């Protein structure tokens, strides 16, 4: 997995979630808190999610085959989508069930000091993991907002870890609120309310992740800025008059397919056209290094007098 895949952030999240899951489950055994059980399952699901992201990065590095000539880069998108499904089915649905069960049959929180101690420890550990994810993401986020970064990022790992860690921190606050209210009021139903809030939060995050990774799985183009660079590189080649049309597609987070129809002069020889295409490909790779697969089709250009649109001859 490349640096853009956020390996350090994934490992930090995995270590934090494993430690937190054990601590939360121990606290649940002492307290019987529904919120603590929901948070335990949440942390176990998150640990599994980080393992899935690592697996996706490893499988995406496989060499291309005859059956998969463009490689396995989209494996990273597939496993990120699986993460969203796991987060919803295991994390959200279990938390919602536990919350409903606790409200229907409230039980007092026993030995609440265990719950408070573990929740504070978990907030510190998740904060460290979240800080690591923010630090790695900031290096590639640029001037975009965090919402824009999550929507525009082609490498799915960092957005997934960011949303998971953010959701974990908010979920811990919900759990702390539920346990605190249950202890203060003596009504165990508040513990169920905290679990329900965690379930709703996880469901929202899972839907956001599924929506974004679904778009990547279907196939997304390069950013407009990157396509502008490709057009400029093409039109800088002396044998290329202009770009008639351009199509791009991410084969993986760091691999781009470029297909373009380019206009050449009608009196160019085949050798001149071939040299022009070679030069255009060189310029594209120089301007956009992730453009690994390039197909250029030479054509003649004419302006459509009726519509003013550019078309191939």
Keywords:
transmembrane; 9 helices; two-stranded antiparallel sheet; 313 residues; mainly alpha; disordered C terminus; membrane; Alpha-Beta Plaits; 67% helix; 5 strands; Cation diffusion facilitator family transporter; Alpha-lytic protease prodomain-like
Topology diagram in text:
Blueprint lengths: L6 H25 L2 H27 L14 H30 L7 H30 L4 H7 L4 H29 L3 H30 L5 H13 L5 E11 L2 E9 L6 H18 L3 E9 L1 E3 L6 E3 L1
Parallel strand pairs: 2-3
Antiparallel strand pairs: 1-2, 4-5
Question: What does this protein look like?
Answer:
This protein is mainly alpha-helical. The chain folds into 2 domains: about 5-220, Alpha-lytic protease prodomain-like, CATH 1.20.1510; about 225-310, Alpha-Beta Plaits, CATH 3.30.70.1350. Helix content is about 65%, strand content about 10%. The chain contains 9 helices and 5 strands, in the order ααααααααββαβββ. The protein has helices spanning about 5-30, 35-60, 75-105, 110-140, 145-150, 155-185, 190-220, 225-235, 270-285; strands spanning about 240-250, 255-265, 290-300, 300-305, 310. The strands form 2 sheets. Strands 1-2-3 form a 3-stranded mixed β-sheet. It has a two-stranded antiparallel ribbon with strand order 4-5. The chain is elongated. The two termini are about 45 Å apart. Mean pLDDT is about 80; it is low at about 305-313. Its main location: membrane. Keywords: Membrane, Transmembrane, Transmembrane helix, Transport.
How would you summarize what this structure contains?
The chain has nine helices and five strands. By secondary structure, it is mainly alpha-helical.
């Amino acid at each position: 997995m490349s640096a853009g895949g956020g390996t350090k952030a994934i490992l930090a999240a995995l270590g934090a979630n494993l430690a937190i899951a054990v601590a939360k489950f121990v606290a649940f055994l002492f307290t019987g808190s529904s919120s603590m059980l929901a948070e335990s399952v949440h942390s176990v699901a998150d640990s599994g999610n980080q393992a899935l992201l690592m697996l996706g990065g490893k499988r995406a590095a496989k060499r291309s085959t005859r059956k998969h000539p463009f490689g396995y880069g989209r494996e990273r998108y597939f496993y990120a989508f699986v993460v969203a499904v796991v987060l919803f089915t295991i994390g959200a649905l279990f938390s919602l069930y536990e919350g409903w069960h606790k409200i229907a049959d409230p039980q007092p929180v026993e030995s609440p000091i265990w719950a408070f101690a573990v929740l504070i420890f978990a907030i510190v550990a998740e904060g460290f993991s979240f800080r690591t994810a923010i630090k790695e993401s900031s290096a590639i986020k640029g001037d975009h907002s965090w919402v824009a970064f999550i929507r525009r990022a082609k490498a799915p790992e960092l957005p997934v870890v960011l949303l998971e860690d953010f959701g974990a921190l908010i979920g811990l606050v919900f759990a702390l609120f539920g346990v605190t209210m249950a202890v203060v009021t003596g009504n165990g139903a508040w513990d169920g309310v905290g679990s329900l809030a965690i379930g709703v939060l996880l469901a929202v995050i899972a839907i956001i992740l599924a929506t974004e990774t679904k778009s990547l799985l279907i196939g997304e183009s390069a950013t407009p800025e990157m396509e502008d660079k490709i057009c400029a590189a093409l039109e800088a080649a002396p044998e290329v008059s202009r770009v008639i049309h351009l199509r791009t597609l991410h084969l993986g987070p760091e691999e781009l397919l470029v297909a373009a129809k380019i206009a050449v002069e009608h009196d160019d020889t085949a050798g001149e056209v071939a040299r022009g295409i070679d030069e255009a490909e060189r310029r594209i790779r120089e301007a956009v290094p992730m453009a690994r697969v390039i197909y250029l089709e030479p054509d003649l250009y004419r302006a459509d007098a009726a519509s003013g649109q550019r078309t191939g001859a």
